[in-house]
């Protein structure tokens, strides 16, 4: 049920004590995100005494956007889980996907991930 892109998140970001994961539709927690459609998912936690995080953006032009996400308690995070949809292509058909991974230091304010996603989409890359 994973997609073409799978990110293995560092253990401190998946810890119930120091880590947090959420998505663009305000689901929090690995079990809550798994199988849910969202434009992006973000993780934040403490690594080596510093708050760090990452975000994965699913571009709106991707087939099936917003993607259903595969999110596992071991820290694997993947947009576009193919367990929830079927894509059929004809002969010589091409299929393109675009994602962006943003890594940051420091705690971010509410709305910051959504603003970064909007910038990504507006840049049309």
Give a description of the structure:
This protein has 125 residues and is α+β, with helices and mostly antiparallel strands. It has 3 helices and 8 strands. The protein has helices at 11-14, 30-33, 112-123; strands spanning 7-8, 20-23, 37-38, 40-47, 50-58, 67-71, 76-79, 99-105. The protein has a 4-stranded antiparallel beta sheet. A 4-stranded antiparallel beta sheet has the order 2-4-5-8. Strand 4 (40-47) and strand 5 form a beta hairpin. The chain is globular and about 50 Å long.
- The averaged pLDDT comes out at 87
User: What class would the helix/strand composition place it in?
Assistant: alpha+beta
Q: What is the helix content? A: 10-25%
- Using only C-alpha atoms, the radius of gyration works out to 15 Å
> Segments where pLDDT lies below 50 for 5+ residues?
none
- How would you characterize the largest beta sheet? 4 strands, antiparallel
In whole angstroms, how far apart are the ends? 27 Å
Secondary-structure element sequence? EHEHEEEEEEH
- Shape, please? globular
Q: Please report the total strand number as a whole number.
A: 8
Strand order of the largest sheet: 1-7-6-3
Number of helices: 3
Beta content comes to: 25-35%
């Amino acid at each position: 049920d994973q997609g073409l892109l799978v990110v293995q998140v560092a253990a401190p970001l998946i810890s119930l004590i120091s880590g947090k994961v959420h998505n663009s539709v305000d689901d929090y927690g690995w079990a809550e995100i798994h199988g849910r459609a969202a434009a992006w998912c973000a993780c934040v936690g403490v690594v080596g005494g510093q708050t760090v995080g990452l975000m994965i953006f699913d571009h709106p032009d991707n087939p099936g956007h917003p993607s259903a996400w595969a999110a596992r308690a071991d820290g694997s995070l993947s947009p576009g889980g193919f367990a929830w949809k079927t894509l059929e292509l004809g002969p010589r058909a091409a299929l393109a996907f675009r994602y962006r991974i943003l890594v940051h230091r420091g705690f971010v304010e509410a709305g910051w991930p959504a603003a970064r996603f909007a910038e990504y989409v507006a840049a049309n890359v």
